[in-house]
Write the structure tokens for this entry.
Amino acid sequence: MSRPALPDDTELSDRIRTLDLESKVRLLTGTNLWRLPAEPRLGLSAVTMSDGPQGVRGTGEDPAETGLLAPAPSALAATWDTELAERLGDLFATEAHRKGVDVVLGPVVNLQRTPVAGRHFEYFSEDPLLTGTLAAALVRGLQNRGVSACLKHFVANDSETDRTRYLSRLDERTLREVYLAPFEQVIAEADPWSVMAAYSGVDDGNESAPMTENARLLREVLKEEWGFSGPVVSDWAATRSTVASAVGGLDLAMPGPEPLWDLPLVEAVRAGEVDERLIDDKVLRLLRLARHTGRLGEPGQHRVLPAAPAGPTEEEFRLLREVAARGMVLLRNQGDLLPLAPGGSHDQVDLPAPAAEGNRSEPDLLSVPDGIRSVALIGPNAVTPYLQGGGSAFVPAVRTVSFEDGLRAALPEDVRLSVHRGGDSRLRPPYLTDALLTDPDPDTGTVGVRADHLDADGNQVGGRIRPSGDWSGYTDFGPKTHRVVLRTVLTLTEPGTHRLEIGCVGRYGVTVDGEEVLAGNDDRGVELILDSTHNNPPLRGIDLEVGPRPRRIALSVDLTVVEPGGYDRFVTAQLRHAPPGSTPYEEIAEAAAAAQAADVAVVVVGTNEEVESEGWDRAALDLPGHQNDLVRKVLAANPRTIVVVNAGAPVLLPWADEAPALLWAWLPGQEAGHALADVLLGRIEPSGRLPWTLPARAEDVPVPDAVPRDGVVDYGEGVHIGHRAWDKGGLVPAFPFGHGLGWTRWAYESVAVSQSSVSTILPSPAGGDGLKLTVELTNTGPRPGREVVQVYVEPPQDGIDRPVRLLAGFATVRAAAGARTTADLHVAARAFQVWDVGTGGWRTPAGRYRLHVGRSSRDLCLMAEVTVEDSGFHAAR
């Protein structure tokens, strides 16, 4: 059943009746990439949207605009801390108010079904409950401040290969118990004000259709069964039809103006193909969104919004730093190598106010590392950290703190820090820099690349000079521009073979010293954006020989402007350069020598923008480049080596059991360096726990890829996703779901089970029904610390195919050294239920269920049993 009408919906419906059909339809698509139309007759101001999973990017109207860059969602999920997630949502709301944004497109509650998924870093977890719980907290933080979340991507859109075309085929029970579950939970617990329909389609045996047209899921499940009262927004350029999408449940087609939802939708209503009452319902949902976000006033009156908050502030930087540090997962710590500084932790256990947690890096607040006078910081990601994933999650950061900068700020002045790359992990060479580039116009003598904007007749209508070879997604030209011609003089001085690599999209031609060397004729438009080709064009290269004298090369790139539908017109060119230089093996040898000479070595390895991004899935799980060789050489050179993994998604670590200390640092956002220093030097405990399973071997991964076969992604594993699949297959991972150490140790002492509130089993994913677990545990280690207490339900295995165990609840507790504490966990009745396809509802199979309590899915310390009967739960004797 749908929720009852909101108190003033009648008044809103009265307003809608004052509009003609054309005016109502005009409200259902954007005026541009990010804004919806205003309608003074309704009191409706324009609603503005923005990308937002790792911050709030803004509308891009100011090319110089920057913002706060948070850790990736997977890093937040690793905290298993709803209070911290809600605080981060509150911060996102502040950022949205600064940028005039009303709707943040996130959080993403798709599941990490396969570790090679390109947007794995942007998802919270492989587990539906952990995903739904953390996402609901983030939504509450946002919407408590009047900024709408847009829950996405509804639904089963869990990989990037052919993401705009594939059909996800999964049975109804799997869809209900796994992939719909986090959406249902967030809607029940946090009431998001908008939801985004995915590019892909779903075939669940009831209906097979693109998500923008899937009436079974959008109308019957989302709106009618769950009572979702806001608008369903298309993913950008995902609307493929007029009648089917309008009837199927789509409410807003973005970006706009969407040609399928303008005159064609009006004509469809007049032809009787679309009921006008459906149009009215779509407008009503839009007005509810506008009311929530303060964009709805009295008809005919101009609504004045409050002034935007100032910022960013140091307190906000401290919160981002805290999230990054607390989300780090200590996988190994042999001999208590970490933390490097002696004495007690300054973690938030001892701090009086949340705002002060993990907030300083001044040396006088940190103990001097015991016996350490030199540190070697090594690795390609030590030199160039990967702070955020590519694609729509990207935020131009207001500042970034590198790992080197963070350690230099935190270490005492008498501790020497040396930095060594140890080989490049990127396949693509770096962009040409201004030191090599000169404007070919002799009158300017300016460094950089000149862009001439030409109209269809070849007349110049504008131009720019920029000091870089990066012209990805260039849009800074007027509407008359038909071509953009890039020209520069490249001066190479180092003798040897230089590699020039160039990547362009669309129609283009490249000349070197007047001779054409490359050309392209790709006439695709919006697809170049949807598959991220505009950010990741294929590279084609030429070798340039330089002798004892400098060589000057005239380079020209002629680009035809790409017309991508509702997106901004653009051109893309990447001019990259690899000079002669040391081999990776020479760099590794130099790094190993530096490690041997240092008291401590910190090796930072990981992924980069070529590996983890929206638009494509990964081809493999290996660390790129020669990083495994680097780690092994450094481990052999220095027994006091800390390996830090700077990656959002799993990578294979074949040397993991050789590393004395192993720390997973995620994609940590702008405060990366400060956060890492806080952890290494004992300022903050890395209290993160893995939100996914880390494989030891690629061949063990339950879902090795999600490549469509004949246009279909088959979810044949059913309800066995992530750690459930590892348990079902009896497989041994490198580190299990939920694993993480810290600065202390914990003794689990007892668990007690009681009825939560009612004796019957209700079908709510978030209600007070179910069981309450009380777990007693003691911090038996030398430092204060934080523990994530996890409970897993083991259902009877004598009937329907069910997971061996599934996560059913968790709680985060803190305690001083030697102190005892209590964790109260709620296990909802839904954890015991299955979807009955025959009756179309939830049921609870009777039998004896085991409740396992512990530190991870494989480290289970306590167990209790309950028996489920028709009358409810009963403790087993």
About this structure: The chain has a mean pLDDT of 92. The radius of gyration is 28 Å. The longest strand covers residues 483-492.
